[in-house]
Amino acid sequence: MDIRQLMYFVEVVKQKSMTRASEKLHISQPALSKGIKSLEEEIGMTLINRSNKTHELTDAGQIVYEYAQKIMAQMDEMATTLHDMTNLARGSITIGIPPMIGSLFFPKVIAAFHKAYPNIHINIKEYGAAKVVKSVEEGEFEIGIAVLPLTDESSFNVFHLVSEEIKLIVNEQHKLADRNQVHMKELKEEEFIFYSEEFALYEMMKRGFINEGFEPNIIFKSSQWDFMIEIVAANLGISMLPESICSRTTNNQVRFMDLKPVTNWQLAVITKKDRYLSVAGRRFIDFILQQ
């Protein structure tokens, strides 16, 4: 049994005539009759009483007709849904975003995308950058926002978004507060306010100091950049944050300066290679890259 046989059968019932049904379906009457006969043979029952010109249904024919109508309706609904998805009349996207990144760059972008495509549902989950990468790889998220470099980029499609420098943050009373730039080696005796381990910046900056010959003395860790700045403002240590965060800060008790050697904070959209990416997902990526 195939969908074409059911389509032929439904049309014959609607038209109550093989001739009119064949005209409607744009096939020959013998081909239509053969299709109906083949359906009856497969089911093992007569579906249409051919003893008169009205082609009345048998009891078995009535049951098949009711189910066939439901099947045809579902086929139509599937086609409509696929068409709607292609034209972005509906759809959904699941995105993993690290909290720091989400608060910086995505509120306006997501608002603009929602305005442009109001029927696309966006499901956002906030994880640390390392967990976002793992979740994209395991299929929990269709799209992830990650900090580069990835441990292994071979499993992902990578779309570069933003690159900016990491700045040093000190209290206004700190001995380095009047400097325009500081080298990492000069910070060996300092106490650091660091990101939590789930942030990619934790490992990135820690490795940077180790490469300069020492391990940073981390006295406090946080996942909230505004709280980290408040701790520095209270003169409890120094910290490092991306330039875009520094430019948002209104606290006049801290100072920002260049940190040498330069460490770039690079953001990218990632998707899993060889995994189907929805039409809505592809449009979202195009949209944020344009933004």
Automatic annotation (TrEMBL):
InterPro entries: HTH-type_LysR_regulators (IPR050950), LysR_HTH_N (IPR000847), LysR_subst-bd (IPR005119), WH-like_DNA-bd_sf (IPR036388), WH_DNA-bd_sf (IPR036390). Keywords: DNA-binding, Transcription, Transcription regulation. GO terms for molecular function: DNA binding; DNA-binding transcription factor activity. It comes from the Bacteria. The keyword Transcription regulation applies. GO terms for cellular component: cytosol. The keyword Transcription regulation applies. Coiled coil: none annotated. Residues 1-58 form the HTH lysR-type domain. Belongs to the LysR transcriptional regulatory family. This is LysR family transcriptional regulator. It comes from Niallia taxi.
